[in-house]
Design goal:
384 residues, mainly alpha, DNA polymerase, domain 1, hpI Integrase, Chain A, 3 domains, three-stranded antiparallel beta sheet, 13 helices, 11% strand, DNA recombination, Integrase_SAM-like_N, DNA_brk_join_enz, Site-specific integrase, AP2-like_int_N
Length: 384
């Protein structure tokens, strides 16, 4: 229940109200908040009633001068934890702690301006981050500022109109292995990093996402029919082994992929080797039914795979790509083999053919040029 009191200032009489808000964890007593400066008792009563309503539905902000670092962490726990995938939550948390708070840490929410937000974006681009990375790193800030508007901490979000221009250092063309590089990579992979061979070989010859591959369980693979069914993606929640899997990225990501005969044999051999590890380790083996895992059955740590990939590429002396570049390489191989853009879209699990066309348009153009050159050579030999 709010209490009200009239008091005098040099500008005349004003009204204030006091309400009890939260429990102080140190003393166990109720904390009291006072708001001053109302011209009439009725005005004070209206604002007090609104504050009490916010208290009851959990949207009350005790300190309107809240620091952005505090507000971001409250936003993350209150509005995101348990409401988004663990992987998304962890991405937001990393962006807040690694990028946003170090830049904005000394600012209050209402001190953040559009100019400051643009400077933050420019700072990330100057650090060499790609456009997509910058979008990911600014997403928590953008979402939190929108919530600040809802909570009436600010009148409008300062993130409106912010431009995320492509970095000059960003390679506009997708990176993939070309021609003989594919064979060189596979041979070096087999010779120097055999434990990762089945995983990287599967990524190369299916085009599935890394998270989709790591979430594969043996029930998802039919080695007799030669298919892989994509039903989950991996969350990297190592603290909770019962919560390693999440829904795929989009509806189109749910798909069944037909495997080449040579890949089926690789996976059969991989399963035999995995069973040997189970017998060897006995009770020390963590049987999560994962197709691709460490020798003890546990998931790969997040950074381990890219480090292994980098080592292999360096030894093979081929184009330096990310693991996602194997997906691009597969798409290029499909197009080179005569697959239509629609067939590539369905195999990769893109939402629309437009997405596939946007990503691989320049590849398609290059192939058309090669085909035209072949036609011209044929015409000169046989028709002209």
């Amino acid at each position: 229940m709010a209490s009200f009191r009239k008091y005098q200032t040099k500008d005349g009489a004003k009204w204030l109200y006091k309400i009890y808000t939260t429990i102080d964890p140190k003393t166990g007593k109720k904390k009291q908040t006072t708001k001053r400066g109302f011209k009439t008792k009725k005005e004070a009563q209206l604002h007090a009633a609104k504050a009490e309503t916010e208290l009851s539905n959990g949207t009350f902000i005790e300190d309107k001068n809240v620091m952005i670092s505090t507000f971001l962490n409250d936003w993350l726990i209150t509005y995101k934890k348990g409401k988004v995938r663990n992987h998304t939550y962890n991405l937001h948390k990393t962006a807040i702690n690694k990028h946003i708070v170090p830049f904005f840490g000394s600012y209050k929410v209402f001190d953040i301006t559009p100019s400051l937000c643009q400077k933050f974006v420019n700072h990330l681009l100057e650090e060499g981050y790609s456009e997509n990375s910058v979008k990911n790193y600014t997403a928590p800030l953008k979402g939190a500022l929108l919530k600040a508007v809802d909570l009436q901490l600010i009148q409008q979000t300062p993130f409106r109109g912010i431009v995320i221009a492509k970095s000059d250092t960003e390679d506009k063309k997708i990176k993939h292995l070309e021609g003989q590089e594919v064979n060189t990579f596979v041979q070096k992979l087999k010779d120097t990093e055999p434990h990762y061979f089945s995983l990287f070989f599967t990524l190369l010859h299916t085009g599935i996402r890394k998270g989709e591959a790591l979430a594969l369980r043996w029930d998802d693979i039919d080695l007799e029919e030669g298919t892989i069914s994509i039903r989950h993606t991996f969350t990297y929640d190592y603290k909770n082994l019962d919560n390693l899997f999440a829904k795929p990225k989009t509806k189109a990501s749910y798909r069944t992929i037909i495997l080449a005969d040579f890949l089926i044999q690789i996976l059969k051999n991989h399963k035999l080797e995995q069973n040997k590890c189970k017998l060897k380790l006995g009770g020390l083996y963590h049987d999560l039914s994962l197709v691709f895992a460490r020798e003890n059955g546990l998931p790969y740590p997040k950074s381990t795979l890219q480090r292994a990939m980098t080592r292999i590429l360096k030894k093979a002396n081929v184009t330096n790509i990310t693991i996602h570049g194997l997906r691009h390489t597969h798409a290029v191989l499909l197009l080179d083999a005569g697959y239509s853009m629609k067939e590539v879209q369905e195999r990769l699990g893109h939402d629309s053919i437009q997405i596939t066309s946007d990503i691989y348009a320049h590849i398609s153009k290059e192939m058309n040029k090669k085909s035209l050159n072949k036609y011209e050579a044929f015409a000169k030999r046989n028709l002209l």
